[in-house]
Amino acid sequence: MEAALSMLLGNTAIAVAILIGAGALGTAIGFGILGGRFLEGAARQPEMIPTLQVKMFIVAGLLDAVTMIGVGIALFMLFANPFIAVVKG
What we know:
Layout (H helix, E strand, L loop, with lengths): L1 H43 L4 H31 L3 H6 L1
């Protein structure tokens, strides 16, 4: 049982690292694309900058929200792992 528990905790740590890392990488790529498209749109139509900026900040907030949900799930799995009860049971 001790081997199964250590295997579960090790795999959970790897899964948490992948989840947080993928969230950070996805957010970084998303912000890069978002900023680039905002600058392209602002260069093409300078009079639309306020409208584009509002939409950019809304999408940036959504990008951060998705990442924070992933971080929340990862921390839940790390500190309150529901699978430990299955292994101990």
